[in-house]
Write a structure and sequence with these properties.
Elements lengths: L1 H6 L5 E5 L24 H10 L2 E8 L1 H4 L5 H17 L6 E5 L22 H10 L7 E4 L2 H10 L3 E5 L14 E3 L10
Parallel strand pairs: 1-2, 1-4, 2-3, 4-5, 5-6
The chain binds magnesium ion.
Magnesium ion binds next to loops.
């Protein structure tokens, strides 16, 4: 852990974005461009964050790969399509991290516990190392309690729960705040 503590004080900060439900409207096991409907405000938010020198990092569980509903190559193709869509809006996504595993429903080698699968913080910690991030000065927007738990475990300073999916409070404290829309995150950058 000393290594992580050192990394967490890096010079950069990130805006972490969950994908399904934050970047695009939630559709179960989405894997094709024609299924993508971007969430209102996502491009403006990313442009503002980019202008404020945030790294833009996507962190997404992809149990559909574990379940065999689509392949890693399908996922990468969709990611490239999304990156191009953002680029047309003046936004460069810095990286997308994904976890293709599921502890119970995974097929073959995809069936396993994984430190990257949210609510575990692995993807955030990988990003902190890869981009020399100060996580305490970073922001994570998700739409599920598992996002908030991952962010809290990683030590992300600002945790924002986009309202819609989670009706009640998330277990494990109130170390996050709710936002009704992505626009509500703009003043927090
Ligand atoms: Mg989500």
């Amino acid at each position: 852990m000393p290594q992580f503590i050192q990394e967490s004080t890096g010079p950069n900060r990130a805006l972490f974005l969950d994908r399904d439900g934050v970047i695009n409207a939630e559709i179960n096991y989405l894997h094709q461009p024609e299924q993508v409907h971007f969430v209102s405000g996502i491009f403006a938010l990313c442009r503002s964050a980019q202008a404020a020198s945030y790294k833009l990092i996507v962190v997404t569980n992809q149990a559909g790969i574990a379940r065999g509903y689509y392949t890693e190559e399908d996922f990468h193709a969709l990611t490239r399509w999304m990156e191009a869509a953002f680029a047309r809006e003046g936004v460069q996504l810095d990286r997308t991290y994904f976890c293709p595993h599921h502890p119970e429903q995974g097929v073959g080698a995809y069936r396993r516990e994984c430190p990257d699968r949210k609510p575990n913080p692995g993807m955030l910690l990988h990003a902190a190392r890869d981009f020399s991030l100060d996580l305490t000065r970073s922001i994570f927007i998700g739409d599920r309690c598992t996002d908030m738990a991952a962010g809290q475990a990683a030590g992300v300073g600002t945790l924002l729960l986009l309202e819609g999916v989670e009706r009640g409070d998330c277990a494990g404290g109130r170390n996050y705040r709710r936002i009704p829309t992505l626009d509500a995150a703009l003043p927090l950058l």
